[in-house]
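Fold this complex.
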Amino acid sequence: KQEVTQIPAALSVPEGENLVLNCSFTDSAIYNLQWFRQDPGKGLTSLLLIQSSQREQTSGRLNASLDKSSGRSTLYIAASQPGDSATYLCAGTILNMNRDDKIIFGKGTRLHILP
Amino acid sequence: DTGVSQNPRHKITKRGQNVTFRCDPISEHNRLYWYRQTLGQGPEFLTYFQNEAQLEKSRLLSDRFSAERPKGSFSTLEIQRTEQGDSAMYLCASSTQGEIYNEQFFGPGTRLTVL
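Structure:
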């Protein structure tokens, strides 16, 4: 069974600190790795997508890395702000032989930035 | 707005009633996905369509659930004889089929509460 695990489940840090969210996956067949943000009661906002041939992606204060050999990804947030408070979801894309794809999500890390 | 839209955004119903949700994908996207997210969990794959064909259904999709995409554009997800355990956020996503993986774009979700 494919699984995506996120640690920690919740995290509180003071404003301005840099932080790292961790994601691990059990299935080497994961093709791409994506990080999403979800605000309470809302849908998903895609933050970064790391394609199979890539090792990392950067967008503003966010940097995501992917190490398929170890089954790990990290999301680095620099200079955290109260507006970064949300749940961050890690998701891996599985491709079958027919190139049908589906996303396997972790349970998320609830991040709270303290003003 | 050219993103994925879902209606209604919120639905409250009594146990035993039938409900239907609608998803309008991004217009040029031929793939459409449904996910379910319960409180504190990541979204879980339910089913997906390529054009009007339903290609895969998760074991989570019991006989009370049915999804259609009759013209290969919008999709509906119907739940018959709702149960309290059906309370969740129902998310829709769309993508294009290509030679390589194409990113799924998510809608805002429909939050279902079964009383």
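Chain A touches chain B through 28 residues (CB under 8 Å).
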